[in-house]
């Protein structure tokens, strides 16, 4: 099988994530220590005890996601597993680039912390949140946005599948879209995030990150990496650097990423990080029957294992 490693973003965090990885592997302990040193936060304690509201803050969840996901990368590589391609969903792009050897562990964690701080300050200036719309065709779901978008209070933040969108905006804007979505028969659910990511409402974070990322060393990826903001493969270091800044205001084109990977010959997806949100999205798509997907970690599960039906 040709396996793509895919990395989750905000909303995948939970108390206890990565616990077995930290307890049983040197990679897990090393990454949490690095994350604590760079962020200056007691991330190990937050993973263990929470509260959930604390680990949802961008300055916390960005380094936490990077630490857990990248520890899984090192654990997989030590187990002689390698990806044929990588892709990250939103914040997951930081770990995806690490998996593709675009930068080393220290730069990776520095970027995660920079993104977290930039998003924290942007959210303080513009409060908002995100929600999912699922169950109706995307064309019908998009109609639910027309009123809100005309007032720039809500935008499509992610195209997750043919019947699944993520919406981001102000609380009033989300309420308007939710009522219209429910009226059209869609299912609506709030996402555990701290701000209106992937919209121009957090443009200040984009500007800040463009400046802060400019001097950091990026190398050409050793395996193909697919960018969520473009829905396409990228090997140019300037575009990769720019993506980590611009993606905070652009929608995630996840369906295009998945379809592009399959067209490129990928026939298995392994979710590398906490939870199985991305596998849930894959399960909602009409994938070819030969395409498999699996995850490494489920909330509440005590096992640390590599799925046997995904071969590398």
From TrEMBL:
Enzyme Commission number: 2.3.1.39
The reaction(s) this protein catalyses: holo-[ACP] + malonyl-CoA = malonyl-[ACP] + CoA
GO molecular function: [acyl-carrier-protein] S-malonyltransferase activity
Protein biosynthesis as UniProt keyword: no
Positions of the Malonyl-CoA:ACP transacylase (MAT) domain: 6-300
A UniProt-annotated Pfam family: Acyl_transf_1
Coiled-coil intervals, chain numbering: none
Keyword Acyltransferase appears in the UniProt entry: yes
One CC-aspect GO term: cytosol
InterPro entries: Ac_transferase_dom_sf, Acyl_transferase_dom, Acyl_Trfase/lysoPLipase, Mal-CoA-ACP_Trans/PKS_FabD, Malonyl_transacylase_ACP-bd
Signal peptide: none
Any one GO biological process: fatty acid biosynthetic process
Keyword terms of this UniProt record: Acyltransferase, Transferase
UniProt-recorded name of the protein: [acyl-carrier-protein] S-malonyltransferase
Organism: Paraburkholderia ribeironis
């Amino acid at each position: 099988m040709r396996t793509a490693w895919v990395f989750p973003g905000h909303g995948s965090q939970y108390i206890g994530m990565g616990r077995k990885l930290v307890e049983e592997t040197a990679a897990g302990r090393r990454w949490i220590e690095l994350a604590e040193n760079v962020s200056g936060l007691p991330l190990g304690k937050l993973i263990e005890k929470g509260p959930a509201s604390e680990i949802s803050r961008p300055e916390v969840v960005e380094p936490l996601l990077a630490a857990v996901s990248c520890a899984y990368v090192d654990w997989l590589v030590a187990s002689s597993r390698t990806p044929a391609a990588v892709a990250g969903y939103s914040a997951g792009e930081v770990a995806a680039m690490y998996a593709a050897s675009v930068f080393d562990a220290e730069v990776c964690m520095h970027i995660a912390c920079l993104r977290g701080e930039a998003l924290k300050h942007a959210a303080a200036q513009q409060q908002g949140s995100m929600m999912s719309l699922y169950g109706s065709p995307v064309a019908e779901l998009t109609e639910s946005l027309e009123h809100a978008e005309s007032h720039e209070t809500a935008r499509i933040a992610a195209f997750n599948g043919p019947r699944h969108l993520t919406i981001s905006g102000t609380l009033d804007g989300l309420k308007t879209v939710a009522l219209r979505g429910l009226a059209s028969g869609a299912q609506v659910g709030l996402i555990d995030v701290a701000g209106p990511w992937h919209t121009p409402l957090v443009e200040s974070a984009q500007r800040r990150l463009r400046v802060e990322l400019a001097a950091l060393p990026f190398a050409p990826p050793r395996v193909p990496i697919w960018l969520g903001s473009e829905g396409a493969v990228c090997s140019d270091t300037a575009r990769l650097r720019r993506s980590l800044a611009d993606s905070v205001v652009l929608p995630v084109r996840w369906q295009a990423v998945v379809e592009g990977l399959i067209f490129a010959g990928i026939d298995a997806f392994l979710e590398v990080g906490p939870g199985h949100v991305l596998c849930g999205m894959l399960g909602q798509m009409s994938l070819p029957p030969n395409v498999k997907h699996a995850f490494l970690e489920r909330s509440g599960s005590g096992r640390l294992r590599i799925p046997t039906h995904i071969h590398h």
